[in-house]
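Let's sit down with a protein and look at its sequence and fold side by side. Which protein we use is up to you, so please pick one and set it down. Label the sequence line and the structure token line clearly, so we can match residues to local backbone shapes. Go ahead whenever you are ready, and we will take it from there:

***
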Amino acid sequence: MNSKILSGLKFDPGLLIIGMFILIILLFLYCLSLHRKQAKLNQKYRAFMRGGRGAKSLDEALEIKMESLNNIKDTNDGLNERITRLEKSMGHSYQKIGIVKYDAFKEMGGKLSFACAILNNTNDGFVLNSIHSKEGCYNYIKEIIKGESFLPLGEEEAKALEMAMQYGMGNE
């Protein structure tokens, strides 16, 4: 059996066959190595999926995580409800204050008298006027509804009311 291709080579064709045989053996060994690695990966995958050796299965791990997320969601919903209730009640609480100190009687010296306006978020509240004199201290209170008083306000009381409305929540 004479081959024109093999006879044209400048080296012994037997060497080519031996080289190919060695290459086939190396490829076979490489395939065995890949097969072993694949078998180990399959074994680890099966163990993970069924939760072998004290580990949790994927289903159990996902179930635990979902339960944890549901607990976080429930807690978050509860906190949102509390925040909503606090925001509603905060509108009724007194949160705006304006204070003006003054000398009610010029001969007394010192600013011992004051007018204090205390309002909620809708500008409802009261103005407290405390007048200090030699004979004693007199306190007066006037109701404020939507930023207005139905009784006349003194200069200091009006200034305290304006301060409370101007410097209330969000305008500081």
Observations:
- The mean pLDDT is 86.
- Residues 57-89 form one domain.
